[in-house]
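User: Show me a protein chain along with its predicted structure.
Assistant: Here is one chain, sequence first, then structure tokens.
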Amino acid sequence: MSENLQKQRTFALVGHGGCGKTSTAEMILFNAGVIDRLGKIEEGTTALDTEPEEIKRRGSIQSGFAGYKWNKNDHYLIDTPGDANFCGDLPYSLAASDGVVFTIDAVDGVKPLSRKAWAAVAKAELPAIIYLNKMDRDRADFDAAFNSINHSLGISPVLLQYPIGSKENFKGVVDMLSGEAYMFEADGKVSKGDIPADIADEIEVLRETMIENIAESDENLMEKYLEEGELTPEEIAQGLSSGVKSRTLFPVCIGSAMENKGGSFLLDAIQTYLPGPLEHSAWQGEDGATRESSLDGPAACFVFKTLADPFAGQLTICRVLSGKVSGDLSLTNTNTGAKERLGNMLMRVGKDQKPVKGEVGPGAIITLAKLKETFTGDTLCDDKAQFTLKKPQLAPQLITFALSPAEKGDEDKVFQAIQKLLAEDVNLSLSRDEETGDILLSGMGQNHIEISVEKARRRYKAEIVLNAPKVPYRETIRGSAEVQGRFKKQSGGRGQFGDCWIKLEPMPKGAGYEFVNSIVGGVIPKQYIPAVDKGVQEAAARGYLSGSPIIDFKVTLYDGSYHTVDSSEMAFKVAGSMAFKKACEQAGVTLLEPLMNVVVEVPDEFMGDIIGDLSSRRGKVLGSDSTAGVTEVKAHVPMSEILKYAPDLRSMTGGQGTFTMEMSHYEECPPPIADKVIEGYKLSREE
């Protein structure tokens, strides 16, 4: 098995949305003989996009998995989504990979979302092959796309093939290593041909540049190249291979996945240049421990995806980190302490799966059915040699919506349906707002939330209505006031009596709430003083203007009176609440709105539009910074103005802009906005 592992490959297909990753996976599987025809995304017939929502929107919304053989060697492929709404768990897929095939569209070249995906690949420190796809498209521009790799990604691309013809006349490639031309035939096969005379000189110059780049990646090769002026084919191949694995060189293959042009070249490059699982650096544990990627070590698997299958139930997708794994093995989940018997191990190709016989070693991507207490991010391992893989860091959720049932009383059904989705989508977050009672669903964008709700409706028959969440406004005190709160109730028998004098004062921003007991002489007995404090706090939580909590104030209790028979904790609590409301009326209350720290990344040409748009949202631009054609704009923007920013940004930038936001601080709400909020609250109270 050890010899087989040397030639085994486990890799992720990564790139921006629409660059053709799923079509590239389709081409790979077709050339490997796993599927007998090339499916099309437009027709919903690809092997890896199988969810109804994927077929409907013509794009991946979750990672797809496939195993295949190339030249009798096992390969495992992870097709990752490129849409910003659905690529949030990319770090988990990269954690399960030994290398990457990074796909770039020959029409658009490197886009801002490509840079974001490339940053994730760089962070994971994975070797990569670049596949320049869609070379046959009308607006394909090989030179511009290839140059964008160098300029925008800041890497040394090594061109493995040069195109013969372009756009609809893309008919072959020149293999830069061998110097031979290959022409595409109708069935995707290739035949040797002649290098066209009009590109022969350019090929010679580019080949010289390629050899120089390879030589520069290795001191010994560089020394020989400077002395002798040339390298042997074996030295070139060896230098390129070691340069890829050290992430100093990045080979570039070209082709058209839809037309099955260049598939065999890409498969050969994956086999030749990407590393095997035994070459993976030691795995880093949560507690600082490490685990070698070794066949002889104790068994360990990392769960990097959970899927829900309508027939098989929960499916757990694992990467074997170390040791030998078989179906009769029982492993411990080191995150929960649960023991899990693996049972039948399956190999997936899209929604199809077949049993895996015998043992598998490091690098294998296996599917396990019916694990009870194991989910995404967990590590399964030998109980006698426990190890917990450090979880990759995920990006924060960007948008939150409030959910409500279509039928009143179905709140629990809605909550349970969405909760089931959390197991397979680590980028979703479900919570309840204690203030408003809303069920809140947070995700990476509006599409992400909408499609998740669509899934819940389809799978769990939960009729859900999406509402914009309520903005968590706050209120605060403007001035000071001294008032009496007196509660007296007599209705035969024992009555209720509580009497207190309080002083209300504003506190500095962020200081919170302070209660001071200045009672002397026992005018209010000690046992009733906490009740006054509680009455004040409860009244403050209900707000004065808009039903929003009042913050940053100080209450001093300094006088009062009591009745030996009628006074009680409840009476003083009511008196405290009455005093606070009266004090708010005298001191004045103002509405505060939450401001968000917003960071927007867009191509330079959109910077003016973005700054203008943020200003129109009452945002305050704090600064901007431009690097390699991408501008980063930082701003403070009121939350109410940016709740649905994701679709607007996508529209303004043609899908090329990305943003993050997090809570910053509260500021006084402008009177026209405050009036609308207060009016809306009054109307809701009346209804």
